[in-house]
Amino acid sequence: MSKWPSTVTIHPSALVAPEAVLGENVTIGPWCSVGPDVTLGEGVRLHASVIIDGVTDIGAQVEIYPFVTVGLAPQDLKYRGEPTRCTIGAHTVIRENVTIHRGTAQGTALTRVGAHCLIMANAHVAHDCDIGDGVIIVNNVVMGGHVEIGDGARIMGAAALHQFVRIGRGALVGGVCGVEADVIPYGSVLGNRARLVGLHWIWLRRQGVSAEEIQQMRRAFRILYPRTGRNEAVLESRLASVKRDFPQSARVQEIIAFMEVQSRRGLVRAASPSQLSAETEGA
Length: 283
Prior knowledge:
There is one protein chain. The protein is 15% helix and 25% strand. By secondary structure, it is of the alpha/beta class. The strands form four sheets. Strands 1-4-7-10-13-16-19-22-25-27-28 form an eleven-stranded mixed sheet. Strands 3-6-9-12-15-18-21-24 form an eight-stranded parallel sheet, with no helix packed on it. The protein starts with 8 loop residues before the first strand and ends in a 23-residue tail after the last helix. The model is unreliable at 277-283 (pLDDT under 50).
């Protein structure tokens, strides 16, 4: 008799290790493979030809489309088979041909995708990446190892994220955009090499941020990234000024805290003054 709940459905062609842990109402479609150290939460659905391996935990109601691999060994020459992990949060949807690799011992030993995310077709989530909740990653996005993406961020199609880059909460990365440095929370970046053109105003409005706070954020942004007379040498003084003058705006303070963290990649530079005109809508 199977140790799995009676509500589990497994196609006869699927290979599921007896040691795997399956929750109620799990559905495993044809030609799937589930390894011995995998846990599938309640209501998980693997459509077809999905491979889940390694020490991997898939949260409740996750839906995974064909030809996805989750938890396989990372593409890192230093990896020597250490028992690192991969987790996918509840209610996340992973579309066709996505690859998500487990972490490395040299990193955090964990690759994490949060809850309620949408990862579209052909995207790659590399080892030790940490993706927050509610993130949307559009088709053909690729990222190096150790990338951090904050809650609610939007990464548009065919963007490429350099290893160790941080993308702040609610940020927008434009399509076909190479991101080599950190993007501030709520920032909007565009271009072949990402340049900051403003804040992600559309997302902020959709989140119900008040008009008053949006105006505060607009003023703070223009102090941090003035359109004329920019001088990188005085960024520290601009940070101090905004930190002092906008104490009531939690989102402004979040941006400042993000910018003050020592980073391996530094911060994305602002666009030229003509490009900054796009700041009115955040592109």
